Amino acid sequence: METYASTAPDLVLIDVQLPMFDGFHWCRMIRAHSSVPILFLSSRDHPTDHVMAMQLGADDFIQKPFHLDVLIAKIQATLRRTYNYNQADSGNIIRTWQGATVDVEQNLVTYNEQSVELTKNEMFILKQLLERKNKIVSRDDLIKELWDDKRFISDNTLTVNVNRLRKQLMKLDLGQYIETKVGQGYIAVEGEHG
Length: 194
Fold this sequence. Notes:
By secondary structure, this protein is of the alpha+beta class. It has seven helices and ten strands.
């Protein structure tokens, strides 16, 4: 962690299989201190590895072997999403939803004097849903907005990210306001939960 702290990277590429501690351990350690984007690269192909990485806060999981062009595209998309998407929305960085304050720039949701910090992906999903409050946002739209090229993303990746977002919001008693519309997508409810 000393090396990570001293270099303060803009993005972390990490493998699952590492000496001493695995990539999951380091992802957990980094997430305890930072919301920097984390991309896993691994030859391990079991779905549980992919799910575990996403549940721990990784932004993407790239299977080895991969084409270098795919890796570069994913890195560029992640960096663009992480560091650029707020610029176009600089006039509307703070939002309110269900009585909570959503600070898009700081990745913070505050409610009843308690706050949770979201990962870049979690905040991006919440932001997309809040831009269309009380309207269904399709899974395809979210995948396309998040990962640019949905051919390289499993449907489960989005589910894991939304579940992680809900889990964070549950700490503020807000998770139930992100509803799943089976076969359609997700909706951020504003007003009475129904």
